[in-house]
Amino acid sequence: MTAISMTLPKMDTSATKTELPSPFQARANDNHHHRSMEKRSEDDETESRPSCDWAELTHECLINILSRLSLEHRWRGPMLACKSWLHACQDPSLHSSFDLETRFNSELESSRWWTPDFERRVDSMLRSVVDWSDGSITRIRTRHCSNQALSFAAERFEHFWFVILSWSSLLFKLDFIWKVEARDYGIPILSSARSGQTHSLRCRNIEVLSIKSCPNVTDASMATVAFRCSLLMELDISYCYEISHESLALIGRNCPNLKILKRNLMNWLDPSQHVGIVPDEYLNACPQDGDVEAAAIGKSIPHLEHLELRFSKLSAKGLASICEGCSNLEYLDLFGCVNLTGRDIANASANLKNLKEIKRPNFYIPRSVFHTERYGHWRLYDERFQTDVFRI
């Protein structure tokens, strides 16, 4: 920064100087003396204070400090500082959760998020955190990850499946060698002498999985999740159009603790908010089998307490299947479900004794989408679509 010098005209201070009355002059002198003493004391304290060398922090102390930072802050700062800090950032205790959802929510959606390059970046972070967690990760909240990365996250927790027939002394020896090597790598082993099956039980602890807006996640990786993550309690597969009702049924059968399911679709009635951001071919691929998915939910996930189906195309039949099979529902979100009437919702939800909140399909329907003239009267139109906000 370049200093700017200014030359001021000299003033005759003798002519303008005003003598202060003695009490004020004494007080001014005292204040000046006090400030000088304070400054001298601060200087002495700074000189006597021991210098702090961050490189001398113990590993435990450094981890304690890093635990107070968010995942994003650790990746952008301490991990780039030095090798010892990078090693500390990889400690398993810091990676019980992988949460990028707060970052996504803090910014406006961008078309860049839907590119292969962005997906590779998210995949790289997810794979790293899963590796560093050493099986301790319990929550994954992200978007735009790939099929391969999600399968990696699930398979990471159960690497080996060996079936060894222990009737041969040679196979006994191979079985023993393999177990020793596995333990050397820190993999807990559970053996079944009866069947000869050997499993790795390395962390099936994922309880929360949120993978919104993942266009390349399919039933293949969801099958891996269903078989490997049996402790799953919350699942968000909103805007994942390559996931079908088969995954819902499989997860329901293998994850008995599932309480929260979010299967929201994009606003296909008025997709203007997504145009130019989400690829057109993906917008047009909105799932049409709402009743089939509803039947899978009602039959396979009986312990649900929270269900979101925004802009689903299910009908009264599908809603009845859900309400009959999921009698413990406390929260039901049906916003944008145009095929449901108020009567359909009242009839289907009558047996939901624990229901505390239900979001009805209230939304704005432009005239270009539905021809309202055939209803003859706005009251009939509102009864059909529950559009409390649409009035003449």
UniProtKB/TrEMBL annotation:
Q: Give me the stretches of Basic and acidic residues compositional bias.
A: 38-49
Q: InterPro entries per the record?
A: F-box-like_dom_sf, Leu-rich_rpt, Leu-rich_rpt_Cys-con_subtyp, LRR_dom_sf
The UniProt annotation puts the region (Disordered) at 1-49
Q: Which Pfam families match?
A: LRR_6
Top-level division of the source organism's lineage? Eukaryota
Tell me which PANTHER family the record gives.
Answer: F-BOX AND LEUCINE-RICH REPEAT PROTEIN 6, F-BOX DOMAIN CONTAINING PROTEIN, EXPRESSED
The protein depicted here goes by the name: F-box protein SKIP1
